[in-house]
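Hey, quick one: can you model this chain's 3D structure?
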Amino acid sequence: MKKFTRIFGGLICTPQNKKLQNYINSHFRENDDTLRAPFYEKEFAFEIELIHRKKMTMPERIRKFDSFASCLPMRGKINLKKPECKITIIENYGVPKDNSPRGECDLIYVTVGRFLCNGQRNLIVKYAVSNRVAVGNTSMDAELCLFMTNLAQARAGSLVFDPFCGTGSMLLTSAHFQSMVIGSDISWNVMMAKGKSARMGQENRKPNETLRGALEGFDLGDKCVDSLGSSFLSHQLNTELCSLLLFYFLFDINEDNVILSAFINISQLKITIN
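Sure thing. Here's the predicted structure for all 274 residues.
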């Protein structure tokens, strides 16, 4: 199967052979560099990320960096601390069949590109259920909450209302992206931090295990507008919105296109509160 390498917005086909580096260099030279040219004069640095290989000696790293000199005419200064253009080389050595160390001869394919930004997977750990002030039996996983929050495009200036918020999992990640949040739930005990706790080894809920307390645990208390302890069906909300939400939950729609359509329709409705 052919592998592909992304190079500053362009795609090249990279076969699996020992002359992989020579092939990449020749493709760089033969390919149009219109997208790469604006970065040639900027301060730059190289870095290598290894997949399924633990270590690489410094002489080998330098040799790999130098191999791009003929195909990437970087004329700017080298700046290892704050480069304007960081060229990242990702080398995949394949999953080993045993515990033997991977070497240069095991290289399968290479991805070369300009580094844009770091990911935010650290937020999965930060907002993990075990790190929250308020938890319940149905508290949502942090990764799923972050995915849904991004799908809803939660951001500063937006208002997020969760009619079935529980312990506020979705509102927590929405507040992280600077949205103002409102939560509602039919469970009075959950909203007012009363009754037995779902946390192992703890008998009753603590006074701060409310929606506001959950947000304050991450210094996001100023994003909480309010919380409501009542049934969503008793709210004086737009009838069309209620019908759409009930249809979604009663019929358990799971197809991606239908869910996306439901999100779009909800966002376009006007909510009126008497």
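One thing worth noting: The first helix runs from residue 20 to 30.
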